[in-house]
Amino acid sequence: MLNYSELIKRQRINEDGVKIPIAEILGKEIVVTGFDMRPSNMHKKDYLCLKFELDGEKHVVFTDSEIIKRECERFKDDMPFATTIIQKGRYYTFS
User: Fold this and answer.
1) Per residue in 15-66, pLDDT tens?
2) What's the whole-model pTM score?
3) CA-derived radius of gyration, the chain
4) Number of neighbouring beta carbons within 10 Å of residue 85
5) Using CA atoms, how far apart are residues 18 and 31, in angstroms rounded to an integer?
6) What is the number of alpha carbons within 13 Å of residue 71 lying toward its C-beta?
7) Alpha-carbon gap, residue 16 to 12, rounded angstroms
8) 30 and 72 in contact (C-beta within 8 Å)?
9) C-alpha dihedral (35, 83, 89, 65), degrees to nearest 10
10) Are 67 and 60 in contact (CB under 8 A)?
11) Edge-first strand listing for the sheet containing 57-63
C-alpha cells in the first residue's frame, strides 16, 4: 500500500510532465517552462525539478546540479526560454 506522500509525489510528476533522464536531452534544444526546488530524502540539499518541453511534449528532469539551479533562479522571470543542456567536465549547464 502506498502512503500519502508517495501519492502526492506521483500526482505532481504526472501534472508536470513525463520524467526523462538528463542524458536523453543533452545537446537537444528544449524550452524551459518552469522549475521547483524539492527536498531530497537522501541528501541534505534540495534537488531541482526542471519543467520543459521537447518536441511539443511536456517533460521533467531531476538534477542536483548547482549550476543549473543557479541559472534557473537567475532567469526565472524570463521563463519560458529555449536552451540546450550540455555537460562540461563533471557538471551540467545551459548553453
Assistant:
1) 678 889 999 999 999 999 999 888 877 767 888 999 999 999 999 999 989 9
2) 0.80
3) 13
4) 24
5) 14
6) 17
7) 6
8) no
9) 0
10) no
11) 18-19, 57-63, 47-54, 29-38, 81-88, 91-94
